[in-house]
């Protein structure tokens, strides 16, 4: 990595990123776009809290409130949390297992661009007649009667980005199964790799039901089908089932990688091997398995009958067991360790009680009979924010600090990091703790305003103040990132000094071909083992040789763009048909052109051979003498 | 990516052995195809015969399952080595599939 | 090293689809994809079963009124046989006999096309004889979605075979395209597996009542 790279023109860099198939660059793309959507979702959250700060407020209208609420949830889950996790998975997992690359570099890039265009499409709804307004769950009874194109944006946008997620999931699975370095057995894989593996398996099985659900909704809204139209024999419960068969595994898709990040952080900053490694792995797999058996706990009040409710209640409570195993193992990892309270470690320590609180309310909600009281109140809102913010978002913030040096070669400022941490933690609990009580007092979720004199004023105000704290915390983080990158103080391969796993054995950021020689893995925490034996480097498992690399490609971008264009056609042909062919005559042609672009670029990909290229041994050796690595 | 070549020291023996093995396997495929046709015929005849559905349904499903097993293990070679991960994920998918269909048959509210 | 390396039937490896790392990855990735497809079709089957015979009024045709054994039988035989012919193609692929592989694949494609022809005839028949359409009832929507998704898979499978055949007509087999042929045939078998459940669950069980 010479200075040549930095002197490249802006356009050259842009082109490089548009065509890259390097998992480390795709990680950065995910981080930037996920971060962007996180800010968008955050602004939406602030608007919600401002509207609910005082009783009978009129900051936004009722209709707009519904749109903002829907877009907040949808954006945060699909366009912020998941992509940000993918950022770390892409940046770290191939390095952790000592892989030269991911299994499908081309598909990796395709996955990103599908997500990106799906997200942009969804958000364009703001400018094109109104956003979706039926909640992130988009229950059919409400969404098939919703007017305008809001729900169509939801359906098509999620369909496109969902395809990207599925591709990303398969890519990680194959990478982890096939591409591990010599000696990296399954039971030596770091926990972040394990949790990525299980989360990817959940993606593989959870996204198809969503795809089907979205197709049914798409056919109903845009092509006259009757899946959810009761007067034509349809049934809206089908949507609820399909959505939650996806939806519950989805929450584990989010939390498991966060668990993985925390596991790495606990071990690193306690300077101790992770306690109960095998139990941790087993618990992760078990959570993934049980995650598929519990979805109907979101439908207790539908009227599925006492037998179904009982079965799903018991299954749901069972998940608390492996989760508890993990909690105790993290605490026992810290026990007796020599702990360093870096920013990531602060997040990890704060995560334990925060997430546990969310788990406890989860078990409360899992009691079907009691859930008739809690359901659709702010108690549920408090529950899932405790697990998602207290678990996933804290994990993401911790991961940002922890892996930043590996991704960018610079270290975020620790002082500012700790300010962010404290502001965020205080703000988070202030916002959501009181919402438990609001829920128990009877405040329903998804309401636009509440009235004075019902005892809800104080807690709602506290909640809004808490949200301001979180917003400030995020602004401090953004400032931190900017000044860090401006100062650009470079760090070495193991900036925390206590790195245990393979990613810390390689330069920060790593060269584009990753390990020059695949490392030989001699046990769990391989880099730590070498350090303990006084080595500074991993023992190579192979002599220096030519390295095979994939070519960059613009095709993933074009393929995704085609679907993006086609989605507009699919949406506006409804108006075209409604107007009896008078207006929107372009809709069908646009649909066809879009699909042709996608199919055409697929054909090009399949017809044109792409064997990649080789970096020659001599160049690798030269790199050694001249370069910093 | 070195290509793994013959495992036997004598490539000629290995080659002929492989050829023979492949031909043998092809014969097995044809047999299993005949079996599939047979199973399909039984299924159709059962429906023609007009038995009661409490009897026909389970038998039809069992025949379908048998046929799928033949496809997977013969035509798709799932019995060959190196299919461990494939089988794990296919069966996990089948489990999720089963649960999904079961709920849609029991608790969609009518 | 070179993916375009020429082979003879003697040097051709035993599992050409899994000899290169790229082939190995594709092989596994595709199986995983099929695992996901299983769940996709399960969701469609589940929806169909929940909405079977759910029509707005009595004058709508139901499954038992429409389906006919002979047609389904012919379609089943066509697809089953095409599964066998693609096995033959792979047998010759492993024996490094490109010409025979091509021939069997072309036969497979022919059978697939015949299947599609019957399916189009069938749909047309339902629409015109029974006014059973995609929009006429929830039953209609779910029937055409399930069977249509399968039909779309057939179209994709045929397109894939054809594309591979055209692209490689004059090249012969190598370690770069062998995995592609292999995966396409795997896909084709999976389509047949789905059809087994369609003819059983939709047609046969539909006709029993
Ligand atoms: C011990 C573990 C958990 C249990 C027992 C549990 C239980 C529940 C139950 C019963 C509900 C339905 C409440 C209702 O609508 O009346 C619910 C809602 C929810 N949970 Fe959990 N949960 C657990 C962990 C998690 C985790 C780890 C996440 C995410 C990372 C999560 C995210 C959610 C979300 C998003 C909702 C609300 C969905 C909506 O209606 O919009 N939960 N949980
Ligand atoms: Cu849940």
Map the helices and strands.
The complex is a heterotrimer of chains A (about 625), B (about 110) and C (about 210).
Chain A: H1 4-7, H2 10-19, H3 23-51, H4 62-96, H5 105-124, H6 140-143, H7 150-178, H8 191-223, H9 237-270, H10 277-290, H11 306-334, H12 343-366, H13 368-374, H14 378-408, H15 414-440, H16 457-487, H17 526-532, E1 547-549, H18 555-578, H19 587-607, E2 613-615, H20 617-626
Antiparallel strand pairs in A: 1-2
Helix pairs in contact in A: 3-4, 3-5, 3-16, 4-5, 4-7, 4-9, 4-14, 5-7, 5-18, 7-8, 7-18, 8-9, 8-10, 9-12, 9-14, 10-11, 11-12, 12-14, 12-15, 14-15, 15-16, 18-19
Chain B: H1 11-49, H2 53-75, H3 84-106
Helix pairs in contact in B: 1-2
Chain C: H1 21-51, H2 63-66, H3 69-94, H4 98-130, H5 138-168, H6 178-208
Copper (II) ion binds next to helix 9 of chain A.
Instruction: State the CATH architecture of chain C.
Output: Up-down Bundle
pLDDT averaged over residues of chain C: 93
CATH domain topology of chain C: Four Helix Bundle (Hemerythrin (Met), subunit A)
Poorly predicted spans of chain B: 1-9
Bound small-molecule species: protoporphyrin IX containing FE, copper (II) ion
How many strands appear in the DSSP assignment of chain B? 0
Annotated CATH homologous superfamily of chain C: Cytochrome c oxidase, subunit III, four-helix bundle
Figure out the total of helices of chain B: 3
Q: What value does the Rg of chain C take, in angstroms? A: 20 Å
Helix content class of chain B:
over 70%
The CATH C-level class name of chain C: Mainly Alpha
The total of beta strands of chain C comes to: 0
Largest sheet of chain B: none
User: Could you tell me how far the N terminus lies from the C terminus of chain C, measured between alpha carbons in angstroms?
Assistant: 59 Å
Helix content of chain C: over 70%
Query: How many structural domains are formed by the residues of chain B?
Result: 2
Strand content of chain C: under 5%
What is the radius of gyration of chain B? 20 Å
Instruction: Quote the beta fraction of chain B.
Output: under 5%
């Amino acid at each position: 990595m010479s200075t040549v790279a930095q002197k490249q023109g802006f356009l050259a860099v842009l082109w490089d990123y548009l065509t890259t198939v390097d998992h480390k660059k795709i990680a950065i793309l995910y981080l930037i776009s996920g971060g962007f959507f996180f800010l968008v979702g955050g602004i939406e959250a602030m608007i919600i809290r401002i509207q609910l700060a005082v009783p009978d407020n009129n900051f936004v209208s009722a209709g707009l409130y519904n749109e903002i609420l829907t877009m907040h949830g949808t954006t945060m889950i699909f366009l912020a949390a998941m992509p940000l996790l993918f950022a770390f998975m892409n940046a770290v997992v191939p390095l952790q297992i000592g892989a030269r690359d991911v299994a499908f570099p081309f598909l990796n890039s395709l996955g990103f661009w599908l997500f990106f265009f799906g997200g942009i499409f969804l958000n364009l709804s703001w400018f094109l007649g109104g956003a979706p307004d039926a909640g992130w769950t988009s229950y059919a009874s409400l969404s098939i009667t919703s007017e305008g194109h809001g729900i169509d944006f939801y359906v098509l946008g999620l369909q496109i980005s969902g395809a990207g997620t599925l591709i990303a999931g398969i890519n990680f699975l194959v990478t982890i199964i096939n591409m591990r370095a010599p000696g990296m057995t399954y039971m030596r894989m770091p926990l972040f790799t394990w949790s990525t593996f299980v989360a990817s398996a959940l993606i593989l099985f959870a996204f198809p039901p969503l795809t089907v659900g979205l197709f049914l909704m798409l056919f109903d809204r845009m092509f006259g089908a009757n899946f959810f139209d009761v007067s034509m024999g349809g049934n809206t419960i089908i949507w609820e089932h399909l959505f939650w068969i996806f939806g519950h595994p989805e929450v584990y898709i989010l939390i498991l990688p966060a668990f993985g990040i925390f596991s790495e952080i606990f071990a690193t900053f306690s300077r101790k091997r992770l306690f109960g490694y095998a139990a941790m792995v087993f618990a992760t797999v078990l959570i993934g398995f049980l995650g598929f058996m519990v979805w109907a706990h979101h439908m207790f009040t539908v009227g599925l009958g006492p037998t179904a409710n009982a079965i799903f209640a018991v299954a749901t409570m069972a998940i608390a067991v492996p989760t508890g195993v993990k909690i105790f193992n993290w605490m026992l990892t810290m026990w007796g360790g020599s702990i360093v309270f870096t920013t990531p470690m602060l997040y990890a320590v704060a995560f334990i009680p925060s997430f546990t609180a969310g788990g406890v309310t989860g078990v409360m909600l899992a009691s079907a009979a009691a859930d008739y009281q809690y359901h659709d109140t702010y108690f549920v809102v408090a529950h899932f924010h405790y697990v998602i913010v207290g678990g996933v978002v804290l994990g993401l913030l911790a991961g940002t600090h922890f892996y930043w040096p590996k991704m960018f070669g610079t270290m975020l400022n620790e002082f500012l990091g700790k300010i962010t941490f404290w502001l965020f933690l205080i703000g988070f609990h202030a916002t959501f703790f009181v919402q438990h009580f609001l829920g128990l007092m009877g405040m329903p979720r998804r309401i636009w305003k509440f009235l004075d004199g019902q005892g809800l004023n104080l807690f709602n105000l506290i909640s809004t103040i808490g949200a301001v704290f979180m917003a400030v915390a995020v602004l401090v983080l953004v400032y931190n990132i900017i000044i860090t990158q401006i100062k650009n103080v470079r760090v070495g391969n193991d900036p925390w000094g206590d790195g245990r796993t393979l990613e810390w054995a390689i330069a920060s950021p790593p060269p584009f071909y990753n390990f020059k020689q695949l490392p030989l893995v001699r046990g769990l925490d391989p880099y730590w083992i070498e350090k303990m034996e006084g080595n500074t480097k991993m023992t190579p498992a192979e002599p220096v040789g030519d390295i095979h690399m994939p070519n960059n490609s613009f095709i993933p971008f074009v393929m995704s763009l085609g679907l993006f264009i086609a989605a507009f056609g699919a949406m506006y042909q409804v108006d075209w048909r409604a107007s009896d062919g008078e207006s929107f005559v372009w809709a069908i042609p646009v649909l066809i052109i879009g699909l042709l672009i996608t199919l055409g670029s697929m054909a090009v990909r399949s017809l044109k051979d792409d064997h990649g290229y080789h970096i020659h041994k001599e160049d690798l050796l030269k790199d050694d003498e001249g370069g910093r690595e | 990516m070195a290509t793994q070549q013959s495992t036997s020291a004598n490539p000629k023996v290995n080659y002929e052995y492989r050829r023979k093995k492949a031909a043998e396997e092809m014969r097995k495929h044809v047999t299993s195809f005949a079996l599939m046709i047979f199973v399909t015929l039984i299924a159709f005849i059962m429906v023609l015969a007009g038995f009661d559905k409490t009897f026909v349904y389970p038998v039809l499903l069992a025949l379908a399952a048998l046929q799928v097993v033949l496809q997977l293990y013969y035509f798709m070679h799932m019995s060959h080595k190196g299919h461990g991960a494939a089988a794990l994920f296919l069966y996990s998918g089948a489990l999720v599939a089963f649960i999904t269909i079961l709920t849609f048959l029991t608790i969609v509210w009518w | 090293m070179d993916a375009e390396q020429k082979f003879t039937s003697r040097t051709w490896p035993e599992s050409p689809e899994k000899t290169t790392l790229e082939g190995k990855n594709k092989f596994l990735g595709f199986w995983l994809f099929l695992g996901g497809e299983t769940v996709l079709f399960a969701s469609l089957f589940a929806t169909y079963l929940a909405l079977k015979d759910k029509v707005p009024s009595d004058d709508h045709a139901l499954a038992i009124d429409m389906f006919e054994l002979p047609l389904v039988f012919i379609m089943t035989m066509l697809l089953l046989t095409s599964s066998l012919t693609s096995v033959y193609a792979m047998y010759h692929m492993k024996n490094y006999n490109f010409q025979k592989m091509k021939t069997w694949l072309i036969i497979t494609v022919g059978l697939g096309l015949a299947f599609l022809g019957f399916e189009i005839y069938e749909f047309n028949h339902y629409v015109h004889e029974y006014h059973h359409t995609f929009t006429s009832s929830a039953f209609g929507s779910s029937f055409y979605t399930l069977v249509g998704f399968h039909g779309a898979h057939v179209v994709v499978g045929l397109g894939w075979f054809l594309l591979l055949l055209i692209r490689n007509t004059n090249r012969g087999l190598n370690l770069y395209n062998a995995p592609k042929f292999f995966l396409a045939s795997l896909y084709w078998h999976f389509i047949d597996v789905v059809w087994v459940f369609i003819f059983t669950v939709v047609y046969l069980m539909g006709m029993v009542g």
